[in-house]
Amino acid sequence: MTDVESAKFNPSRFFNSPADVLADKSLSKADKIAILQCWAIDERERLVAEEENMLPNDQEIDYKLAEIHQALESLGVYHSDSSATKHG
Helix (H) and strand (E) counts for the chain? Predict the structure, then answer.
């Protein structure tokens, strides 16, 4: 059983991919959405750090964020790209 609160704090420590979140049968739909949303925030913050030259350019961040958005959409949560900032 996944420790939901810890997984929200650091999703990539508990899951290798967003698909792993979806496949975890111990999580409710709401838990999965919360974990994926927290993961998306983490990835957007990494993009901001990258732009500020705090991290090396990493296309993996963009790919991971796209995977997260697809996972959220499969749960009925739709992402809008109309955000004013990368922070969502």
Answer: 5, 0
